[in-house]
Amino acid sequence: MKPGYEAVIGLEVHVQLKTRSKMFCACRNQSGAPPNSLTCPVCLGLPGALPTLNAEAVRMALVLGLAVEGTIQPRSAFYRKQYFYPDLPKGYQITQGPVALVEEGHLDVPGDARVRGKEGPVRIRIERAHLEEDAGKSHHDLDAHHSHVDLNRAGVPLLEIVGAPDLRSAQEASDYLKALHRLVVGLGICDGNLEEGSFRCDANVSVRKAGEAAFGTRVEVKNLNSFRFVRQALEHEIERQTALLEAGEAVQMETRGWDASAGETRGQRSKEAAMDYRYFPEPDLPLLTIEPEEITAARAALPELPDQRIRRWQEAYGLGLDEAQTLAQSPAFATYFDELARLSGSGRGAAAWMLGEVSRTLNERGISIEAFPVEPKKLAELVRLVDARTLGFGTAKEQVFPVLLAGEGSAEAIVAQKGLAQIRDRGPIEALVLQVLTAHPGPVAQIKGGKESLKGFLVGQVLKAGNGRLDARLVNEVLAEALAKS
Description:
Blueprint: E1 5-16, H1 55-67, E2 71-72, E3 75-76, E4 78-82, E5 92-96, E6 102-110, H2 113-116, E7 121-133, E8 137-139, E9 148-150, E10 157-163, H3 170-186, E11 199-209, E12 219-224, H4 227-246, E13 254-259, E14 264-270, E15 280-281, E16 288-289, H5 292-300, H6 306-317, H7 321-327, H8 331-344, H9 347-365, H10 376-387, H11 393-405, H12 411-418, H13 426-439, H14 441-448, H15 455-465, H16 472-485
Parallel strand pairs: 12-13
Antiparallel strand pairs: 1-10, 1-11, 2-6, 3-16, 4-5, 4-15, 6-7, 7-10, 8-9, 11-12, 13-14
Helix pairs in contact: 3-4, 6-7, 8-9, 8-10, 10-11, 13-15, 13-16, 15-16
């Protein structure tokens, strides 16, 4: 952001709810099925077909509202939002009207100190979260002469979460989106699959001179489906608008799309006036009424929220924010870490394995933590051995962990069978240190001359001579003593 200017950003996030069936019919809510195979008269918009509200979608919206400490409206209505597009067969979308099920919530995110001028979290208001149905999907790249429409997605339950224009940088927008993603996945209401469009957003961004109260001209960037694209698109759009203002030109109100290959936003259509969607109440659906006991039951069923888990891990184990956020990437991953930390008695050790070898294995095999072949109890034994310095981390990673992955015995048995336990007897270590110092008089002389960095080279030579079985901490200690005496 150029000095003297300020960005104003608000995100509208579309969360595809993880229900078994669609919003207003019994068709399966499932991705990957053959085109147009999950449809019925209701989601095809055939005359006379009547919608029936999905109670589970309402429950999920209610849970989200409580998690963001929003106001749950006891009564809300559904409206018809009229517009024509090939993937909207009814010619209108059913969405909640002026009053949403959830109003006035908030989400706390790390503030961008570069634009805020101070460190610390900032509170981003959530104006509303309302239920609606998704449209189908148009494919324009399958045929050189025709567009294709797949209506499997038509009628899938969506929760649109409208954030207030409280974000002040592309980084804050990305952080807000990540926090919201962790929340909806942690609550179990969305699978969070960005590539399949289960979690996507539109960004509203304007630029104004620093200190001005009035907003600049707003531009909407549509259908951003990755944290990286959100950040890149907003950074580009902020620079583009700032350059226009610097040149004395006006920013046009319009909708733009993000071209990732070109690294720029591109105009799609102008928005000189608000669209007239001709909203009117949906005549086939009654008012949505939420009873107090429903709110009480939903509140009692709330799990530990991702941000609560993150703070607990930071306080209990001294983890950094980035580490804790990565561990909270999914409920199953977080649960595995919690169990591993409990069984091993080492939160930091458990985190190191989860963020290192466990994550690497999941990525290499293309699996989730649910399919990870080593149960927490077995991995905890390995964490304990390393933490107690019975086993070196390198040896554990290279010679024990692969055997555990193959399902061949326990960590303690593998260490015993292969004779991998660390040598912690000072006698053999002192002998190897003396041997290395004698073999490398040059580095020893340079260290005495003040080149302390060469100590690492000598430590490495000692560890190599000990075939990776020496206690590295004790090697450092003995080496320091030997150098001081020489």
